[in-house]
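Incident review: delayed structure delivery

Summary: a single-chain prediction request sat in the queue longer than the usual turnaround. Root cause was a stuck worker, restarted by the on-call engineer. No data loss occurred. The affected request and its eventual output are reproduced below so the record is complete for anyone auditing the incident later.

Affected input:
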Amino acid sequence: MTSLNRITIHWTGGVYIPNQVDKNAYHFLIDGEGKVVKGTHKPEDNINCKDGNYAPHTGGGNTGNIGIAVCGMYSKDYPIKRIQIEAACKLAAELCNKYGIRITNKNVVTHAEFGKQHPHTTSNGKIDIVNLPCVAVYGVDNVGNWIRNKVQWYRQHLV
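Output delivered after worker restart:
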């Protein structure tokens, strides 16, 4: 049986408030105020995706994978905010602790990194998250490294 061994961080491509499509696709969403909103599926639903009852957030890589999405990026009026990315990283750290997930470039990734690492999946070419202007970090690898460093920081500072 597969365990939960990866977290993939996304943006929704929507506005700052999650809709039902977002809730069905991701386990957790971060709204425009930085609040965590639970999706329809619990992370454990992605241990076995063969039953069709799972959060389909990462094409070609949902099994064992927890999906966190920052709400936004529908247009220039909905950029990712610092409060959102901080909340996503804090949540990822909590989930890493809860499920024993290692913080590596294979286990805590952006959707863009997953697609780059798995070019034969439908995640190839995804652009979430390739830039974080709110913290002046740009490029797939730089963003992924920044997120992992922040997740590690939160993991070390969780009470």
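Verification: The mean pLDDT is 96.
Action items: add queue-age alerting; document worker restart procedure.
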